[in-house]
Design brief:
The chain has about 160 residues and is α+β, with helices and mostly antiparallel strands. The termini are far apart. Strands 2-3-5-6 form a 4-stranded antiparallel sheet, covered by helices on one side. A two-stranded antiparallel sheet has the order 1-4. The chain has 3 helices and 6 strands, in the order αββββααββ. It has a domain at about 40-150: GTP Cyclohydrolase I, domain 2, CATH 3.30.1130. It has helices at about 25-35, 90-95, 105-120; strands at about 40-45, 55-65, 70-80, 85, 125-135, 135-145.
C-alpha cells in the first residue's frame, strides 16, 4: 500500500529536473507548482462600478536567502479592478508557491505586485508584505502601481 507523501519526505527523486512535482506528489504540491508557473485564473469583473478588493493572506512563508531560516508574514493586496478579478484559490496557491523559495522580502513583494499588475491590469494596485519581527526588526514593504491613492492607509501588524 502506498503511504501519502508528506512534505518532509519529498526527495529529489520526487521532482522533475524543472522542479515540477511528479505524479506521486500530493494534489497541493501540483496545484501550487501550477499556480507559480501558469497564468492565474481570473474572472471578468462583474461590475462597472469602481470598487476596491482587499485580500489578506496571513500565512505567508518563504526562506531567507541569507540565513536559510523561514520568513513569515502577511501579504495584503488592495486593487481596483478594471476588466478582471483574480480567482481567490488561484491567489492563495500563488502566494503559497513562495514557501520553499529563497527570496528576500523586497523581491517577493515586488514580484507579487508585478505579476498581479501584468495579469489583471487593474486601475490601481497595492501589495504589502507585512513580515513577522525577527531579531527585533519589523519589516513592512509596500509596492504601488497605477493610482495608489485609491486605498486606505495600512496599519501594520504589531507582532
Amino acid at each position: 500500500m502506498n503511504e501519502p507523501t508528506s512534505r518532509s519526505s519529498l526527495s529529489a527523486s520526487n521532482v522533475t529536473p524543472q522542479g515540477a512535482p511528479n505524479a506521486d506528489h500530493q494534489y497541493g504540491d501540483r496545484a501550487i507548482h501550477q499556480a507559480a508557473t501558469e497564468p492565474l485564473e481570473k474572472w471578468p469583473n462583474p461590475s462597472a462600478n469602481p470598487y476596491t478588493i482587499h485580500l489578506e493572506h496571513p500565512e505567508f512563508t518563504s526562506i531567507c536567502p541569507r540565513s536559510g531560516y523561514p520568513d513569515f508574514g502577511t501579504i495584503v493586496v488592495d486593487y481596483q479592478p478594471n476588466d478582471w478579478v483574480v480567482e481567490l484559490k488561484a491567489f492563495k496557491l500563488y502566494i503559497n508557491s513562495f514557501r520553499d523559495r529563497r527570496i528576500s522580502h523586497e523581491t517577493v513583494t515586488n514580484a507579487i505586485c508585478d505579476r498581479l499588475w501584468t495579469e489583471l491590469a487593474p486601475v490601481g494596485l497595492r501589495v504589502i508584505g507585512d513580515y513577522t519581527r525577527r531579531g527585533g526588526v519589523k519589516t513592512v514593504i509596500t509596492v504601488c502601481k497605477g493610482d495608489g491613492q485609491l486605498f486606505t492607509p495600512y496599519t501594520a501588524n504589531t507582532l
